[in-house]
């Protein structure tokens, strides 16, 4: 359980800090823009860490299920190898999740006005 918790903590730290440098730079500057590559990298990191965290939480739920329902077999079922495989699978699914989202997002057209037209702003109520 502590091995899975340490990996969850690492994912949470990574997820909390991948966009922080850009955010701090935008707070301190007047010109707040992001490049297309920077935006795509932030989206991919968000999906990698988010997808990995979700799968790791499922693995932790499985760990607690084994600990509660089969306490005498816990050490046999949840060996160090099984925990390592669960962590590896969580990272692999996170990367696959990110790659699938990024494959569809990169080809979308992002050129055009950078102001959002709100339909209701033109009509006084």
Description:
Helix content is 71%, strand content 0%. The protein is mainly α and 125 residues long. Helix 1 packs antiparallel against helix 3 (36-69) and helix 3 packs antiparallel against helix 5. The radius of gyration is 21 Å and the shape is elongated. The mean pLDDT is 85.
What characteristics describe this protein?
125 residues; mainly alpha; GPCR_Rhodpsn_7TM
Question: Which sheet architecture does the biggest sheet show?
Answer: none
Instruction: Measure the end-to-end span.
Output: 57 Å
Helix proportion: over 70%
Strand content: under 5%
Name the poorly predicted regions.
Answer: none
What is the N-to-C succession of helices and strands? HHHHH
Mean pLDDT score: 85
Query: Total helix count?
Result: 5
Q: How many extended strands? A: 0
Structural class by helix and strand composition = mainly alpha
Question: For the CA atoms, what is the radius of gyration?
Answer: 21 Å
Shape: elongated
GO cellular component, one term: plasma membrane
Main location: membrane
Signal peptide: 1-16
InterPro entries: GPCR_Rhodpsn, GPCR_Rhodpsn_7TM, Olfact_rcpt, Olfactory_Receptors
């Amino acid at each position: 359980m502590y091995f899975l918790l340490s990996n969850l903590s690492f994912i949470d730290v990574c997820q909390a800090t991948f966009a922080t440098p850009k955010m701090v730079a935008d707070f301190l500057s007047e010109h707040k823009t992001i490049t297309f590559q920077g935006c795509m990298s932030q989206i991919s990191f968000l999906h990698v860490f988010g997808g990995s965290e979700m799968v790791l939480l499922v693995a932790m739920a499985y760990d607690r299920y084994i600990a509660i329902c089969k306490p005498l077999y816990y050490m046999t079922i949840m060996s160090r190898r099984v925990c390592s495989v669960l962590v590896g699978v969580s990272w692999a699914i996170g990367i696959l999740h990110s790659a699938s989202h990024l494959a569809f997002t990169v080809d979308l057209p992002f050129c055009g006005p950078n102001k959002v037209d709100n339909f209701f702003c033109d009509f006084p109520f």
